[in-house]
């Protein structure tokens, strides 16, 4: 499986091939180059760009052309995007102004690398019509007493076949067409208000794209500070124990039966028991599970996020692995129910 990375046209550069899907096939076909991590992130990013866009590259847009029917009639509503060799990359609307992938790299990816982001992957797919790039926002960490790794990535995607330039934070990095589609699906499912609050950006291919990208870079740079703040907060929650009495008070507010019908009350009582079971799951929570003294505030938070994803199903999602715990998506998805519970837990400690 090549994930639509076309031999002879598309190229991918990555820092660490162990997490690139089907990396053996990709390396054998000469489509992937591993770039060694180094302290100079700007030099690392430029090396990756040299791999993806060598001198004779053909995996970016250089021009557009008009469209005509077989009868020779011009199609006034659409045009084609073309590679340097004249290959058709996609059919787009007439308002579409192609922003070169190399320009996105220079204005956005490289700017974030200079600001402290660590380049992870960069490349094209679908015969040069799609772009993908990922940077590490901050070093991955583990909360004491929990084996789960917390990762924060900033992903950037674009395509010369339509759509905008998307960028946002997530718990996975884009490395191929499949992960790009996952990233874009999450983007499309997020409301405009949430995108604005969480620095999720979509920039259309228009004449003002360069200016918009520069504004977005300033906006996204705050993500590194947000990551450090989140790390400190989670470690603080991990060190605080919530007593069994406080846990029961929390449950009565979190899964409330006030003004509920008899049927709703029965459902919520059952959910309360399920929630208590999640808090006792030592295989999942490790040292943060519910014991005779109580549960750590961190364990309580993880129980909430698991409950919302697996039991309450307030907002169902196909990406259950990456959104099962709120802390893995602290710069991305978080439903209102999780956030409300989180604020209450923080108040407890």
Model description:
The protein is of the alpha+beta class and 349 residues long. The protein has 2 domains: 12-61 and 96-227, no CATH class; 240-348, no CATH class. The protein is 42% helix and 19% strand. It has helices at residues 23-28, 41-52, 101-114, 177-189, 192-198, 209-220, 222-238, 244-254, 262-279, 282-285, 297-312, 320-323, 336-348, and strands spanning 12-14, 32-34, 63-68, 74-82, 88-93, 118-125, 130-136, 141-142, 149-150, 153-159, 165-170, 201-203, 241-242, 295-296. The chain has a 7-stranded mixed β-sheet, with helices on both faces. Helix 11 packs antiparallel against helix 13. It is elongated and about 75 Å long.
Order of helices and strands: EHEHEEEHEEEEEEHHEHHEHHHEHHH
Oligomer description: single chain
Given helix and strand content, the structural type is alpha+beta
Beta-strand segment tally: 14
What portion of residues belong to β-strands? 15-25%
Radius of gyration: 23 Å
Average pLDDT, all residues: 81
Distance between the termini: 49 Å
Q: Please tally the helical runs, counting DSSP H or I stretches of 4 or more residues.
A: 13
The helix fraction, in percent, is 40-55%
Largest sheet: 7 strands, mixed
Indicate the low-confidence ranges by residue numbers.
314-334
Count of individual domains: 2
Coarse morphology: elongated
Strand order of the largest sheet: 2-1-6-7-10-11-12
């Amino acid at each position: 499986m090549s994930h639509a990375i076309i031999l002879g046209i598309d190229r991918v550069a990555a820092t660490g091939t162990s997490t690139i899907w089907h990396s053996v096939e990709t390396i054998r076909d000469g489509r992937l180059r591993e770039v060694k991590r180094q302290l100079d992130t700007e030099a690392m990013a430029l090396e990756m760009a040299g791999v993806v866009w060598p001198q004779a590259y053909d995996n970016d847009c250089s021009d557009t052309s008009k469209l005509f029917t077989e009868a020779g009639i011009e199609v006034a509503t659409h045009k084609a995007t073309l590679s340097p060799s004249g290959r058709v990359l996609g059919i787009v609307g007439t308002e579409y102004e192609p922003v070169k992938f190399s320009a996105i790299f220079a204005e956005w990816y490289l700017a974030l690398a200079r600001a402290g982001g660590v380049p992870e992957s960069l490349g094209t797919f679908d015969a040069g019509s799609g772009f993908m790039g990922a940077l590490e926002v901050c070093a991955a960490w583990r909360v004491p007493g929990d084996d789960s790794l917390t990762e924060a990535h900033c992903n950037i995607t674009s395509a010369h076949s339509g759509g905008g330039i998307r960028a946002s934070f997530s718990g996975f990095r884009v490395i191929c067409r499949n992960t790009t589609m996952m990233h874009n699906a999450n983007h499309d499912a997020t409301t405009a208000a949430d995108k604005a609050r969480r620095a999720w950006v979509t920039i259309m291919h228009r004449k003002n794209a360069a200016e918009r990208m520069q504004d977005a870079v300033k906006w996204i740079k705050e993500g590194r500070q947000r990551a450090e703040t989140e790390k400190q907060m989670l470690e603080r929650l991990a060190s605080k124990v919530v007593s069994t009495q406080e846990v029961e008070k929390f449950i009565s507010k979190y899964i409330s039966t006030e003004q509920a019908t008899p049927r709703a009350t029965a459902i919520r009582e059952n959910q309360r028991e399920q929630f208590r079971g999640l808090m006792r799951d030592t295989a999942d929570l490790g040292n943060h599970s519910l014991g005779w003294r109580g549960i750590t505030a961190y364990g309580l938070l993880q129980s909430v996020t698991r409950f919302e994803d697996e039991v309450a199903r307030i907002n169902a999602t196909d990406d259950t692995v990456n959104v099962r715990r709120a802390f893995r998506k602290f710069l991305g998805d978080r439903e209102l129910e999780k956030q409300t519970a989180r604020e209450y837990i923080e108040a407890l400690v």
